[in-house]
Design brief:
Layout (H helix, E strand, L loop, with lengths): L7 E5 L4 H12 L4 E5 L2 H15 L3 E5 L5 H13 L3 E6 L14 H29 L2 E6 L12 H20 L5 E6 L8 H4 L15 H13 L4 E2 L6 H14 L20
Parallel strand pairs: 1-2, 1-4, 2-3, 4-5, 5-6, 6-7
Helix pairs in contact: 1-7, 3-4, 4-5
Length: 269
């Protein structure tokens, strides 16, 4: 008996960087691809290269996920195409610098892309894949989801949103045949930095991972069944301890009385 062909993977932000590297790696694994991004010229060049080098089917799907109507088109494709069994939810942007000094319009655009669009596509995939009984959702977050003191607070919050959404979907979809992985890269050599006005060359060399290494590590984590993958973290036990500490809080997060330290103190007569 022959194994079934890998499901078609839809990748957002596929024209460069992390998305383009996922496209290369998944094509090598035999996945047909639907590549989503704004830059049609880059998408076509990538698609032609992957068709020639791997023989898989590659469709270019131009869309600007900053536009709600384009998000709806992509969500509709995920829900309406039974061949699609993998979503790499990668499209995003960054704004650098202090939140208090940032352009509110840029922050709003970042929330639209990193949160509104990404969550809409994740939900579309969760619903479609659960109905089909199989599928994989890969949500690209960031280690900054765990480090609110660093970089831009709104950017970090958008990545924390994707981590929490992923964990919630993992709980909801348990037993459905749908896998959900959150990937939390550290600093990675991609164009997101220059677009945010940051020169990545100013970072210590040991601080920045190459995009190919990062994606290869993320896919290795997926193969190993990880629900949260931190490509740079040396000890998986450290994440397990972090999660255990978080879960240990749950029994006391909601109670019928305030904690003793918040109650009025008795006054001696």
């Amino acid at each position: 008996m022959t194994s079934p062909a890998p499901a078609t993977a839809l990748i957002t932000g596929a024209s460069s960087g992390i998305g383009a590297t996922y496209a290369d790696r998944l094509a090598r694994r035999g996945h047909d691809l639907v590549l989503v991004a704004r830059d049609v010229t880059r998408l076509e060049a990538l698609a032609n290269r992957l068709r020639a080098s791997t023989g898989v089917r590659v469709e270019v799907f131009p869309a600007d996920l900053a536009r709600p109507e384009d998000v709806l088109r992509v969500a509709g494709r995920i829900g309406g195409d039974p061949a699609i069994g993998m979503l790499v939810n990668n499209a995003g942007m960054a704004v650098s610098g202090p939140v208090a000094a940032a352009d509110p319009a840029k922050l709003a655009a970042m929330v639209q892309l990193n949160v509104a669009a990404a969550s809409q596509l994740a939900v579309a995939a969760a619903q479609a894949f659960a109905a089909r009984g199989s599928g994989t959702i890969v949500n690209l977050a960031s280690v900054l989801a765990l480090a609110p003191e660093l970089f831009n607070g709104v950017y970090n919050a958008t990545k924390a949103f994707m981590l929490v959404l992923s964990q919630s979907l993992q709980h909801e979809l348990a037993g459905s045949g749908v896998r959900v992985q959150a990937v939390l890269p550290g600093a990675t050599r991609t164009e997101i930095w220059s677009r945010a006005g940051v020169d990545v060359a100013t970072f210590p060399e040991s601080f920045v991972m190459g995009v190919e290494e990062m994606v290869d590590a993320a896919l290795a984590g997926l193969d190993q069944g990880e629900q949260v993958t931190l490509p740079a973290l040396p000890e998986a036990a450290d994440w397990a301890a972090f999660e255990a500490a978080r879960l240990a809080l749950q029994p006391n997060l909601s109670r019928d009385r305030p904690a003793a330290r918040y109650r009025p103190q008795d006054v001696a007569a």
